[in-house]
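Teaching note: in complex prediction, the entire set of molecules is handled at once rather than each chain in isolation. The prompt given to students was simply: 'Predict the structure of this complex.' The entities are:
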Amino acid sequence: MAVLDFIVNILSTPAILVGLLALVGLCLQRKPIEDVVKGTIKTIVGFLVLSAGAGFLQTGSLLAFGELFNYAFNMQGVVPNNEAVVADALQNFGTSSALIMAIGMALNIVLARFSRMPYIFLTGHHTLYMACMIAVILGGAGHLEGAALYLAGGCLLALIMVLSPAYCQVTFRKVTGSDGVALGHFGGLGYWFAGLVGRLFAKDPNRKSTEEISFPKRLIFLRDTTVSISITMMIFFLIVVAVAVAKGLLGIVPAGTDPKAAAALLEPYGLTVANVGGLLNIGTETTSNWIVWALTSGMSFAGGVYIILSGVRLIIGEIVPAFKGIADKLVPGAKPALDCPVAFTYAPNAVIIGFLSSFVGGIVGLLILNGVNAAIPVALILPGVVPHFFCGATAGVFGNAEGGLKGCIAGSFAHGLLITFLPMVCMPVFSALGYVGSTFSDADFSWMGIVFGNAVNFAQGGLLVAVCVIAFLLPIVYNFVAPKKNEA
Amino acid sequence: MAIRKIMCACGSGLGSSLIVHMNTEEVVKKLGHPEVEVDHTTISDINPTAADLFVVGADLGDFISGIPEEQKVVLSNILDKAELEEKLKAHLG
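The expected output is the structure of the full assembly:
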């Protein structure tokens, strides 16, 4: 029994489980023993680093931001950031996420081989994030457990891993001028949408590509995620704290109050000592100015994301090459689906224009949400620079490929609106599960979250598993049943 | 200067730099330098002492202006292995 307990314990420790996945991958590639040891250990450490980053992000800034936003504006403010929500969710759904990821990658190979979508999804961090989101939805909201959860989740993950590159490919083959590579990034729906909007300008007689105009490239420094997250979060924190201070935040707790008494004073406002104690100087020796606190909290958010990204890098650094090696052997003619910056070199101007236009779309979307909020309470989705930079830039490249400069501007503006409204619609699903301060930013996470987060209300248990498995099998059945188009 | 470590970089150091990392490893072996260490990271972490050679896509060429020319490989197509091989050859000999 002791041995069995030990094995169960290993398999239910997410860090060790992902290490074992890397171990299997490395052995299947027949790597030398030192590489196997190195890769396995780095993967496990990566998971632990990620957990540490999640903790720091939560206690260092995200929780405080949520409480203060609520106090200042009487509504829920949400910072869309994949890393923040994934790192938090992995604490509770680590084991199922890891197993869904493994099964999903295996089934991705099956789909690539037997459906008409021959894509191998190589953007490992998005595979991990999507596995985590599916685990939260099917396990948390759908109450699936054990093998049923892993199977259903793996099927859904595999499906989106080929579906997303497939609908991106409509426009992406015009970007690259070939059909050999695909885009593997779960902002896919947004890029497809940007391409669609861009196509409205396809017949414009004065059509000009973004690359024919000269455009300042200095904004490229925002590609550095640490810098761009710091800047946006400092601005958000400054605004929120300033409004809170104007509403009398600093007067709630008199100086010198001990933490217990302060907690009682703060409670009616929905604030806690743990999160805003530093701002209000409760139980601290030194006093800090609220502006300084807002700036350091904003940068702490960036610090948290930096730690999480380092962890994610260690985890996927070993798993993705193994996945690619195996897929190359099993699926002849597979097309690799790669992360969105592969699109950037094809149209560097569209990258900057797309970012700006998408960001403006995000701000307009925020204003619209604010108006809607007067009628029906909704969560306010704040425009984060990271999703608008990476996804908005890619949307710009797509819009440009379909409709030139005008297509780029219109397509990425529409994308900016889309990635503001989709998370808003998706938010109730995550709020119900306790994820309130942050949500997924990119479009595919949102639509999957909306569809399956609501599907679990209609289908439970065996039926839910059946729905997921059937969704996975459909493209394969279609391939064998539907007549093939003449490829001449 | 002998190249011992090559660093591939992209915006968040997760996706495209890992692809370039895998390609670089393959090319370095093909060129007969299996001893060269290859890694990938975010552009936040780039500084001249972090590695002997840095590989980035053309969209980030301006971004790493702090790195001396002889330590840079800027790819106009980050997926093109032939371009990568030609440019690495110039550095590795």
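Point out the following to students. The beta strands of chain B are 5-10, 37-42, 53-57, 72-75. The interface with chain A takes residues 10-16, 18-19, 21-22, 40-44, 57-60, 62-63, 75-79 of chain B (CB under 8 Å).
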